[in-house]
Amino acid sequence: MSQEQFQAIMPIICADLVAAICRERKVSEQDAIRLLYASRLYAALEDEQTKLWQYSTPMLCTLLNQELAGQRIAFPDNPAQERFLESDRRNRIPVQGRHAAEVSVLLSS
């Protein structure tokens, strides 16, 4: 997938994931966006090479729930995904990150 195609699909994936987080956790959209953007899962999802963008929203929610429960995220075999498992949360992009505006627009429509 080209970088341009990936950049076009990421806000859609994130909007679906944020909506699912809102439903599952009964939190506001802003809290769901913060939760997602602060996660190691999002760091991996944001890198096209990990191919996490191919996962379904329920699968991504399962992975996020594993992370939030303090469990090791169990990615299928893919070396590009493995490098994100030990990433440091303090290095995450704040909620004003690159896709925040696109996700907010998609959620409001």
Enumerate how many helices there are, as a single number.
6
* Main beta-sheet strand count, sense and barrel state: none
Mind telling me the C-alpha Rg?
A: 13 Å
**Portion of residues within helices:** 55-70%
Estimated structural class: mainly alpha
Order of helices and strands: HHHHHH
How far do the termini sit from each other? 27 Å
**Beta-strand content estimate:** under 5%
Sequence stretches where pLDDT stays below 50 over 5 or more residues: 87-98
Count of extended strands: 0
Average of the residue pLDDT scores: 78
Described by the principal axes of the CA atoms, the overall outline is globular
Question: What does this protein look like?
Answer:
It contains six helices and no strands. The protein has 109 residues and is mainly alpha-helical. It starts with a helix and ends with a helix.
